[in-house]
């Protein structure tokens, strides 16, 4: 699907045979990128290029110029910068290009104005290696630093030698991946109805089809449940009378806006999954969103979950949601009883605000310091403390599927023991098969835990099989 864009990148360099031309004009590549966005569902009327392409200063985004800007209903959804360099100038100008890319993203990311609106940012790098052997490693180090600093959400990186063969040297930075993920994430951030109403969402069809990001479409009925990051109101969709939950963030800081934006984006992308709490409607500036009104949290179902049969069903449901998220490369990082919700008799996982995306897909505001998640449920690598082993990398670099598996094991331990876990202190049920299951899932060392949800579920089946034979 990205073939025409890849061809445009190749044609940008090659004029005839194996000659490489100077990359001063990349209009054809930008035009192909626009076509690729439109093919993937982005309305052409949202896209601005040329002199019109700037993220507006009215949103505190630095009035920065981008090669492509996507704006819907006057709300900036994203921007893409294209840069190309060849030959000796590539080597000589590398520091300047890195500085320009850094400054452009920082002008957007460092603003706390307008409630923390954070558009998606993409960087499209086209580099002719020339004769300088030091350029490519230096450039790749800079791109990795962009991702570590969470300046850009998606990066495409291609190189071309004098042999005129186009290369994509870094996994996760291909043209195909860039355009597919950037488009999908733009659509998830665009206010409006979900593209598909699955049978699971059928009870909320009227809410979904009327979604337009307007708070006046809902009436709020009760005093909210207050959390550390947001307040959740019980409410009603006025036009249909359908009960909903209205979640409003408490802080106007940019990091809070980015956190809620992540929660909305990922819940929308995973909305077809039966065990993911969907987002039905939201405000474009990510100050609130609408979700179904849950029957209860796992915490409120504490007594029922002491029954191993009920617990087994809940754990497998949440594991299913995590498996789908992990398939996309996302880690939840805050699995706990309050974020596991019962909806029409079905367990769902909610609150994706602390999600860690794979390298190259993180957002600037996602970095939360040395501690991530909830004490007692967060694994030692995300919540270092006196009882945690030493890890060679920071918590952001250690977000792997095993981090969520640890937290899910702690949820099982909490349910069966009746004790709230303490950070990094083992907590095991007394009886099998769950004692062994929890013990394997909550090892302090990452490599000793199950490395995937499939492996974790296999352990559950194995231990239940043993219990059935005894």
Automatic annotation (TrEMBL):
Q: What GO molecular function annotations does the UniProt record carry, in alphabetical order?
A: ATP binding; DNA binding; protein serine/threonine kinase activity; type II site-specific deoxyribonuclease activity
Enumerate the spans annotated as Protein kinase domain: 218-470
Q: Which UniProt keywords apply?
A: ATP-binding, Kinase, Nucleotide-binding, Serine/threonine-protein kinase, Transferase
Give the enzyme's main class according to its UniProt record, as a single word: transferase
Q: Which PROSITE patterns match?
A: PROTEIN_KINASE_DOM
Instruction: Give the EC number(s) listed in the UniProt record.
Output: 2.7.11.1
Task: Report the record's Gene Ontology biological process terms.
Answer: DNA restriction-modification system
Q: What InterPro entries has UniProt attached to this entry?
A: Kinase-like_dom_sf, Prot_kinase_dom, Restrct_endonuc_II_XhoI
Question: Does Oxidoreductase count among this protein's keywords?
Answer: no
Q: What is this protein called?
A: non-specific serine/threonine protein kinase
Record the organism.
Streptomyces finlayi
